[in-house]
Amino acid sequence: MTDALTVQVVTPNGIKYDHHAAFVAARTKAGEMGILPGHVNVIVPLEVDELKIRRVDDENHVDWVAVNGGILELKNDVLIIVADSAERERDIDVSRAERARIRAERALEEAEKVYDIDEVRRAKVALQRALNRINVSQH
């Protein structure tokens, strides 16, 4: 057992996060999951939500990352998250996220008016992603 996790968040656009951590919290399809060094190896699907990463360099230093779903793989204290998109708290363009939220809310209203189930689902996912980015930006 080591005293740190190596944490990487990878998207099709490259590595978005790469540090050592003492603790990581993530929301999986089965619920909230906390990971400490020495955790059993696991592969789980993630929800659209935030990652909370407590860094080893300072116990009060927490990094927040907005992740739009993906897969979390932990093997021998190396935690890799593969996601379609991810943004660190400091990199989120809040005004862009707010515009995305407004677009998604409007799309959801329109889709519900015409009872288009597929469009309702797409709009709900877009809204969830925008709200996740906004929430992470506020940490």
From TrEMBL:
Q: Does the keyword Flavoprotein apply?
A: no
Q: Which CDD domains match?
A: F1-ATPase_delta (cd12152)
Q: Which residues form the ATP synthase F1 complex delta/epsilon subunit N-terminal domain?
A: 5-86
Q: How does it sit in the membrane?
A: Peripheral membrane protein
Q: Which domain of life is it from?
A: Bacteria
Q: Which UniProt keywords apply?
A: ATP synthesis, Cell membrane, CF(1), Hydrogen ion transport, Ion transport, Membrane, Transport
Q: Where in the cell is it found?
A: Cell membrane; Endomembrane system
Q: Read off the InterPro entries from this record.
A: ATP_synth_F1_dsu/esu, ATP_synth_F1_dsu/esu_N, ATP_synth_F1_esu_C, ATPsynth_dsu/esu_N
In this chain the ATP synthase epsilon subunit C-terminal domain maps to: 91-138
Describe its assembly.
F-type ATPases have 2 components, CF(1) - the catalytic core - and CF(0) - the membrane proton channel. CF(1) has five subunits: alpha(3), beta(3), gamma(1), delta(1), epsilon(1). CF(0) has three main subunits: a, b and c.
Task: Please give the family membership noted in the entry.
Answer: Belongs to the ATPase epsilon chain family.
State its role: Produces ATP from ADP in the presence of a proton gradient across the membrane.
What is the protein name given in its UniProt record?
A: ATP synthase epsilon chain
What does UniProt list as this organism's lineage? Bacteria, Bacillati, Bacillota, Bacilli, Lactobacillales
Gene this protein is translated from: atpC
